[in-house]
Amino acid sequence: MNKIKNYLEDKQPIVFQVLKNSFKSNKTSHAYIISGSKGSPVLETAMFMAKSFICQSKDENALACEECINCQKIENQTYADFKVINGEQLKTDVTLSIQEEFNKSAIEPENVKIYIIHLIEKAPISSLNKLLKFIEEPDSNIKAIFTSNSVSSILPTIVSRCQVISLREFMMKDLVNYLKENDVKDDDAYLISRISNNAEKNLQLVKDESFETIKNVLKESLTYLANKRDYFIVYFQIDGIKQFKNNDEIDLFLDMLEICLMEALIKKEDKTHVSFFFDDLISMISSKYEHIDQMINDITKAKIDLLSNANKNLVFDKLLINLLRR
Known about the structure:
Elements: H1 3-11, H2 13-24, E1 31-35, H3 42-54, H4 69-75, E2 82-86, H5 92-102, E3 113-118, H6 125-136, E4 142-148, H7 156-159, E5 163-166, H8 172-181, H9 186-193, H10 199-207, H11 209-227, H12 229-238, H13 247-269, H14 279-288, H15 292-307, H16 312-325
């Protein structure tokens, strides 16, 4: 039950110390930004903070026990005075609804109201501007926790009104070694460690049964790009896209494809560069395509389109055509 607490204490000692000092001295801020690179447990840390505000059985550091009824309510998002909103869903009406709801009296006896906006940099600017006054003039019992993979992408006026807590990044070699120590194959360890900076999440991703399926689609895609580009779109439309069960699997595939193309771009500049995964295919793609940087941009645009709930088949059709044009 205390996995995130143990993670913070063992792997993020500075963050743990900051939280311990704040809660033990009862000098918490009204608004926080939890930042970390993609894959870092920013949301898990934000949830742990939310639990620490209303925990009924705090530990010796005044932090959440993660086991009491209030901690479980936060975990299951059934605590009446608690909301979690994804940044891209923070439309104007949602922002106004939060303000209206949180201006009412608290329902729970702890009299603390908490809201988390996950990946706030993805929220529309118009919504953030409406949220700004709410952050500037909060009631004493309202706590805002924002998470981010890129603090520089957040409105400076919001950042200046929050306490920023940054999760430190790990060296890739440490992530790779951790996975190897847990019986992950070398090529898988190097590939997944390029995508996420969260060792525990990386291990879960590789151990999940969907990983091999996604990796096989990736290998087939790279093979067609390298050898039979005319069949690339046909393969993907008929077979490839059917392998993905949900958007998370699509995101992981696009991340992995993007990393492979980045490797191809590096190899284009440095012929001696050796990739730890799909090296032969990456070498062929590197020599075959002139504008690999634009291919990477195409993938980035596809990710943005998918975030806006665009039709995934149309997004992929556009992406595949653009990739072949390069």
